[in-house]
Amino acid sequence: MDPKSLLASLYHDNHAWLRGWLSRQVRCPQDAADLTQDTFLRAWDARQLERIQEPRAYLSTVARRLLCSLWRRRKLEQSYLDQLASLPLAFAPSAEDMALVREAIEAIDRALEGLPSRVKRAFLLNRLEGMPQQAIAGLLGVSLATVERDLRRAFVHCLSQTVECQ
């Protein structure tokens, strides 16, 4: 069977189930619909449709990863909004600036997707917070060499994602 037919079959057989499952997870029909579509796009992009033996297990795993990314991104956005709320009104950014920041946060999140949490955290502390490597090592309870290795890994990962993370 050709890939388009496989995707059509996977979509037809599992779309309603997946959307229902995601609706219970996020309690928002629009988010559930978006995540459902993103899940099928990821399945298509994986180019392994013919290898899927347990479609619901596969789709729920992909959807869970997308949910984690969504929640992580929302947590990051909320942290940013909390910081903005603490600024005097004269320093409040425009709606356009807010949109640009949101896009940048999403791009960084996508670029770091797939890295272990310690590597991501070290990278964000270094690049976004400006924290020196020695301070990161102390905060994370690891050696300086580990922090250097984690930062190098994050940079290489970002470069492989063709997204500039500097």
UniProtKB/TrEMBL annotation:
Domain of life: Bacteria
Keywords: Sigma factor, Transcription, Transcription regulation
All residue ranges annotated as the RNA polymerase sigma-70 region domain in the record: 10-75
SUPFAM superfamilies assigned: Sigma2 domain of RNA polymerase sigma factors, Sigma3 and sigma4 domains of RNA polymerase sigma factors
Biological process according to GO: DNA-templated transcription initiation
NCBIfam families: sigma70-ECF (TIGR02937)
Family: Belongs to the sigma-70 factor family. ECF subfamily.
The protein's name: RNA polymerase subunit sigma
Species of the source: Pseudomonas fragi
